[in-house]
Amino acid sequence: MADTNSTTSRRKFKYLTPYERGEIHALLQEGKNQSYIARKLGRDSSTISREIKRGTVTQLRSNLETYEAYYPETGQAVYEKNRHNCGCKIKLAEAEDFVSFAEDKILKDKWSPDAVVGSCKTDPQWIDKPMVCTKTLYNYIDKGFMKVKNIDLLLKTRLKSKKPRIRPNKRNLGLVKA
After folding, report:
1. pLDDT tens for the chain, residues 1 to 178
2. In CA terms, which of 14, 23, 54, 62 is 20 to 30 Å from 143?
């Protein structure tokens, strides 16, 4: 039996689904206002306002008159485009010289990625050139962007592999589970 008395709150800032965007479109067609739509969907009115702004486009009628209308497909497309553009971009092409140097040092001289980054930070020839940090170098190795594999790294073969941990809820209104 699932415990429904959990004290942890529902996740906030949940994104709108395409179905909800369709509901917004239908309610706007009926002439409902933003606050009514927000109550109906269980969302904040500012979320609905931003979504309407995101999905509204200017159309041209046959008599060369313009009008604005909300389209859920446009709102979804703009949302997906914005999500694609967010986040840190990969620096692999920008720091190509450094990455090839790091590959050479790791494979031939058996250096660790941290040793490569540390030596390049103190080396005057690398001061003005683009570099990546140790964590990024390890991420590139894990994702297969470099010729170096985890088996080539001395320390990584001795470490335990990371396993995802699923932690149970700790607070359940002070109830003790039997």
Report:
1. 455 665 666 556 678 999 999 999 999 999 999 999 999 999 999 999 999 999 999 999 888 899 999 999 999 999 999 998 888 778 888 899 999 999 999 999 989 999 999 999 999 999 889 999 999 998 888 888 899 888 888 776 555 666 667 777 666 665 555 5
2. 14
Structure token digits, residue 84? 């694609």
64 three-state secondary structure: coil
Q: Phi-psi bin for 32: left (phi > 0), alpha (psi -120 to 50), beta?
A: beta
The predicted model scores a pTM of 0.54
Q: Are residues 77 and 116 in the same domain?
A: no
Q: How far apart are CA 147 and CA 42, in angstroms?
A: 50
Which is nearest to 49 in space by CA: 75, 30, 67? 75
Say if residues 46 and 13 touch (Cβ distance below 8 Å): no
Q: Look at residue 119 and tell me if it is in a domain.
A: yes
C-alpha pair distances (Å), 124 with each of 53, 64, 120 = 51, 64, 8
Shared domain for 73 and 101, answered yes or no, is no
Alpha-carbon distance of 100 to 148, in angstroms, equals 10
Q: Clarify whether residues 24 and 77 are in a common domain.
A: yes
9 within some domain: no
How would you class 23 by CB atoms within 10 Å of its CB: exposed for 0-12, middle for 13-18, buried for 19 or more? middle
